[in-house]
Structures are given as C-alpha cells and as structure tokens.
C-alpha cells in the first residue's frame, strides 16, 4: 500500500491567516448584506443612546417585554397541561402555568413592581452564581488555571451583593441601564461587522 498522502489544495491567497474555509465562505456570503448590518447597527446604537438617557422608560419597556414573554410561556404551559390532563402531573403543570401567567400580567400592569421583582431576582441569581463558582474553585484550588474561576465568582458575587444592597431604589434604573448597554454593544458589533464586510466586498 502506498504511503503517499493525497494532495492538499493550496489555500486561497485572499484567505486571511488563521481563518478556516467555512468561516471565510460564511463571511463571503454576507458581503452583499453589508448595508443591512450597518443600518441595523446604527439603529441599535441610536436606541441604546435613547435608552441610556431615559433609563426609567427603558426599564418599563424591558419589564413589559419580559412580562409579555412570561404570559406567553404561562398560557403555553396551560394549553400543554390541558392536552395531557390525564397524566399525573396535570395539576402541577396547571399551577405552574397559572403562576407564570399571573406573574406576567402583574409585570405588564404594574411595571415598577415587576422591575423591583426582576432586579431582586437578578441580584439573587448573581449571588448564587458567584457563590457556586467560588465553591467550585475552593474544591479545585490546587489545579492550575482555576484562579480565573475564583476571580469571576468573586466579581459576580460582589455585583449581586451591590444590586441587593441598593434594592429597591436601583430597580428604577438598573434594568434600563442594562438594556441600553446591550443595545449599544450589539449595535457597535453589527456596525463594525458591516464596515468590515463592505471593505472586503470592495476589494
């Protein structure tokens, strides 16, 4: 049997070093849509700037949006529960669906109360996540590289404690600020991607 290896096709001179062929092909397929990426990026940047100025309105919007999703999830769970009403878990599914629906309706009707609940939930989640990472680090502290887990856990834990310490006053602006930062980040990312695709298409 011959030990000769099959010939390898030479890489394209236009392929940047470190890029795989599937990634390059995906980027090339998006070159014609660079205007769309730039437009959406600019729109998100504008919305992010507006949200950063009107953080209370952004908070209310985010709570209403989340409340709507919760209502949809609750109604879907109720429909699913009634479709399997002969199963043993029918009452549990129905109770969970009613609870989800009621929580979503309360968030929509009273966004300020919903913002306070979501902010407290965010703080509790960060505290739990940070404590879990620190616990994982403590049990594996002898292994190399686990210091980053400890640092990440400590930062997350401190962020959760700060949110909980400032509650409920921070519930009026925290969610809106997070929404603004997310819009700015996503907009800037899409804008840079669109500009990169435009420069690549012009070559």
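Q: What amino acid sequence fits the structure above?
A:
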């Amino acid at each position: 049997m011959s030990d000769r290896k099959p010939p390898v096709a030479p890489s394209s001179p236009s392929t940047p070093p470190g890029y795989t062929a599937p990634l390059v092909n995906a980027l090339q397929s998006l070159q014609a849509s660079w205007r769309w990426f730039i437009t959406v990026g600019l729109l998100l940047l504008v919305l992010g700037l507006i949200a950063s100025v009107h953080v209370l309105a952004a908070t209310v919007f985010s709570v209403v949006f989340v409340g709507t999703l919760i209502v949809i999830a609750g109604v879907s769970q109720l429909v699913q529960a009634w479709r399997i009403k002969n199963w043993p878990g029918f009452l549990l599914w129905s109770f969970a669906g009613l609870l989800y629906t009621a929580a979503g309706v309360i968030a929509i009707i009273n966004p300020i109360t919903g913002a306070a609940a979501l902010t407290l939930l965010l703080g509790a989640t960060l505290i739990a996540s940070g404590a879990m990472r620190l616990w994982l680090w403590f049990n594996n502290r002898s292994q190399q590289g686990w210091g980053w887990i400890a640092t990440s856990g400590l930062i997350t834990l401190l962020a959760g404690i700060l949110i909980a310490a400032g509650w409920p006053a921070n519930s009026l602006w925290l969610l809106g600020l997070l929404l603004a930062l997310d819009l700015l980040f996503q907009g800037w990312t899409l804008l840079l991607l669109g500009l990169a695709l435009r420069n690549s298409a012009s070559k």
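Q: And what stands out in the fold?
A: Helices lie at 21-29, 34-53, 55-83, 90-109, 111-139, 147-166, 174-201.
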